[in-house]
Amino acid sequence: MRLTIDEYAKRFKMSKEMVHSRLRTKRLNYTLEDGEIYILLKQEQQEHPRTQHADSSNTARNRIPLRPKTTVGTIIALYQKENRQLKNRINELESKIDRLIDDKEQMLRDERDRIEKIYTSRDEQLKSFLELINTKLLQNYSTAVHEVVDVDHVADKSAEPDWRYNGLVELRKYLKTLDFNSTQRKHIKKRFARNYGHDVRIIQQNGEFFLDFTKYDYSDLLQTDQ
Fold first, then answer.
1. CB atoms within 10 A of CB 26
2. Domain span at residue 89?
């Protein structure tokens, strides 16, 4: 037979506090089921409750306290509960790790995009700068060529008064003013002859080639073969 704490207290006419005290000191045999404590009664306790209550104080010293039995089901339930708690904890940790990894990857992507933008911007600036420098160099080179032509023309005007015609410069006479040997001059003349007809910069009058430095740049055609 088994009784709840309330039933046991009423049956043996004692307070609940006294019943709890005897349970703590293991003076009563009990079992735990679904969170409820049940006190187990022996056969003689069921037949003589008052006598048992009167003699309980005398027999307490001789009674061996019985420990509640631990069943296999109780152990399994305990392990299952601990496993669930551990799984929940593991899931929480994995979620935190995933969030940290995602945040770190996003930071790396943002940093990569920022660096790419910086290098792209600097590359465009460098290209613009190089184009500007190249344009300036070409302009300076063209100006220098014109100045050389003008100076040479003034210096040799008395010797060769007819090497300019209406702003045009005769190629043959212009080459003589430059520091070219005869072989180099021949190569340049052949280059003009090959390109005549499909290069608008090359002008021919009376069988002679002429240059118009006021309109065109002839630096590529006047290069000598090394």
1. 14
2. 70-155
